[in-house]
Design goal:
By secondary structure, this protein is an alpha/beta fold. It has helices at residues 3-11, 65-95, 130-143, 151-160, 164-174, and strands spanning 14-17, 23-25, 28-37, 43-47, 50-56, 101-104, 112-115, 118-121. The chain binds zinc ion. Zinc ion binds next to helix 3.
Length: 175
Amino acid sequence: MNMVKKMIKVKSVETSTLERHPVPVLGIDYRVKIAYKNIKVAEVDVEKATIIISLPNKYKKGNNKAILDLAIDKMYEQIAKVEIERAMEKTRIMLGFAPEDYEIKKMTRVFGKCENRKITINPEVVKFDRDTIDYVVLHQYCHLKYKTHAPSFFKLVRKYEPDYGTYESKLLESL
Ligand SMILES: [Zn+2]
């Protein structure tokens, strides 16, 4: 591509840093920047410590909070698909049993649940680092053996994660 043309094209993209809380991804806080481009649907890119959300030019003048929240949710969902699949596989191998099925679904005030041998994980768990994601999955796997938080349940949890108390309080604090 012609270099001059390319530079002009880059220059014409306006970015602005958002006045909002940092967005955590896998335990790291990212800044959020918005770019307006000649595109039809929103795009999300991650670059070093910055998440760049590109919106179609027509949104330049509006208050885009709802659209940005949606873009960030979509990003969490995409990361969750990969991360939760990874944690499920790791835990299955470690424990030697598995749920019949699992689902990634947004829930309020809970990161995971286990009902009828099916595990559900909240995609927002990818705000935390991998060890914490792994703990949330392990906790739900243990519910396949013990439904309640009885001592036998925590005995099983402790066998695979002796430091479970730290994860429990970290997750509880964030709700
Ligand atoms: Zn539980």
